[in-house]
Amino acid sequence: MIDYARLTDIVRQAGRLAMAHWPGAGHSLSVWEKSPGDPVSDADLAVDAFLKHELGALLPGAGWLSEETVDSTERLDRQFCWVVDPVDGTRDFVRGRTGWCVSVALVSAGRALIGVLDAPARDEFWMATAGRGATRNGQALVASSRAHLPGARVPADALPKADHDLTLVDKPNSIALRIAMVAADEADLLATLRWGYEWDIAAACLIAREAGAAVSDAWGVPFDFNKRDPRAFGLLVTAPAIHAAAVARLATRNPPRNGEGDRA
Fold first, then answer.
1. How do the pLDDT tens digits run along the chain, 264 residues long?
2. How far is CA 101 from CA 91, 153, 164, 177, 191, in A?
3. What single string gives the DSSP state of each residue in 38-60?
4. In this structure, are residues 200 and 103 in contact, taking their beta carbons and an 8 Å threshold?
5. Which residue in 53, 75, 91, 95 has its CB near the most CB atoms, within 10 A?
6. How many whole angstroms separate alpha carbon 16 and alpha carbon 189?
């Protein structure tokens, strides 16, 4: 169905296009805020336009869901849908830091079939296909196998007092790269308790799952992608053996899970 060589080339080209704008490589960048605290740059828009054109040509008729494109419900009637964040980790990107990536997923019937992350500033290219495993730079990934929650490595800036038995590790701004850290056994646990969007997580969640990690929303329920409302509340990516303990720890912090609006 998909020309994987062409898909790889498209995403790598998108990464090179982003690099041509990245301040960390000495380039100037136009940055503004879509809303307070939500930055966007001309790189986001350029990469978005490139991917929409090229991925549309790769799989004609597929729907499109992207952070930088006005959403259309037409995607709900398509068998396949591209779910894209042209620059995930924009805050790191605009500051010239390396914690960002291009994120591309192909979704069908609510499930990610292909997930690709290109992090050119880190020389990392991640890819997964449902049922076929996940790789980074061509090397097979095996997720964390940690057996106990205390001491688990968490990519975060700080931890709540109740979680001081966990261990901080380096945190890229990109949520997709933090998910991928669990896939690569560089972290044991990633948890969020806030509203986010499918384009932030769809590709990376497949990579983590195919590497053997447990992936769910904050209540422990699997994700369903390409929903009418593309938001999701909470994210939990862990070593499989500590997933239940992590769900239990978060249970007292989660809001009530009532109605479709609360579903991931």
1. 799 999 999 999 999 999 999 999 999 899 998 888 888 999 999 999 999 999 999 999 999 999 999 888 999 999 999 999 999 999 999 999 999 999 999 999 999 999 999 999 999 999 999 999 999 999 999 999 999 999 999 999 999 999 999 999 999 999 999 999 999 999 999 999 988 899 999 999 999 999 999 999 999 999 999 999 999 889 999 999 999 999 999 988 888 775 444 333
2. 11, 22, 29, 7, 20
3. EEEEHHHHHHHHHHHHHHHHHST
4. yes
5. 75
6. 30
Residue 8 exposure: Cα atoms within 13 Å on the Cβ side: 13
- What is 180-235 written as a DSSP string? HHHHTTS-SEEEEEEEEEHHHHHHHHHHHHHTT-EEE-TTSPPP--S-SS-EEEEE
Six-digit token string for 188? 């044991």
CA–CA separation, 50 and 21 (whole Å): 14
User: Which tokens hold the place of 135?
Assistant: 């790789």
Count of other CB atoms within 10 angstroms of residue 189: 28
Which structure tokens are listed for 15?
């990464």
Does pTM top 0.85 for this prediction? yes
Distance between CA 55 and CA 42 in Å, rounded? 20
